Amino acid sequence: MPLRGILNAAHGLAYYSRLQEVTANNLANASSDGFKLDRMTGRMLAGDSFPVPVQHVDLRQGVFRQTGRALDVALEGEGFLVVKTPGGDRLVRGGSLRLDAAGQLTDSDGNAVLGTKGPIVAGNGTIEFQADGTVLVDGAPIDQLRMETVADLAGLRKEGSGRFLPPEGAALIPAGSLALRQGQIEEPNGDAVLGMVDLVTIQRAYAANVDALKAMDGVLGTIAGDIGRVV
């Protein structure tokens, strides 16, 4: 029984160690616009003796913050904008867009934001975004933002800087009920205070597993050193 208990405690320590990393990363991004929390649960898989940690991205909508800046955009509903990176097309939930020296619309990292005709060149005119993604310059429509998604959202992987990598081989499809908001930014979909509470809870659970491990180690020491001693 102590040996089984030691294995249980060891797996518990590994789980809480990983959960602490995930929670700490969520907390570190509590002020990152559009950040989506990572969640982790324990799941028993066929053929395994112990639950294994399973991590997934929480894509629930964050609240919106008014900025009044014309190139700040946020999406309401399930879906993404598409940007072109050196590694291929990536999905983003809007953000603070920019105009480069050539008047091309980019994200904050300089990646081109794509419309139905390709990269969007707005020049030096006044830009307006409509709810359906139509881009107007000085009142005239020039293109429409690609507002897309994938069939299996669970297969999305984070790439950093708010970008998501579609599942390998997955085709991008038009998003359903999705509206673009100009002059607004989507906040992270988590609460910093709750994240700090979670960290304390995780640390206490980790310490409890350490104490249990020490107790079982003491039992084994007694069995091996005292009970098993030949008088």
Key features?
alpha+beta; about 230 residues; 8-stranded antiparallel β-sheet; about 25% helix; 20 strands
Can you describe this structure?
The structure is a single chain. This protein is of the alpha+beta class. The chain has two domains: 94 residues, no CATH class; 123 residues, no CATH class. 27% of the residues lie in helices and 32% in strands. It is built from two helices and 20 strands. The strands form six sheets. Strands 5, 6, 10, 11, 15, 16, 17 and 18 form an eight-stranded antiparallel beta sheet that branches. A hairpin with a 2-residue loop joins strand 13 and strand 14. The longest helix has 36 residues. The radius of gyration is 25 Å and the shape is elongated.
Quick recap of the structure?
This protein has 231 residues and is an alpha+beta fold.
Q: Quote the beta fraction.
A: 25-35%
The chain-level structural class is alpha+beta
Mean pLDDT: 88
Helix content: 25-40%
What is the gyration radius calculated from CA atoms? 25 Å
Based on DSSP secondary structure assignment, what is the total number of beta strands? 20
How many structural domains are formed by the residues? 2
The main pleated sheet reads as: 8 strands, antiparallel
| Oligomerization category of the chains in this entry | single chain
Determine the N-to-C terminus distance.
26 Å
The dominant shape is: elongated
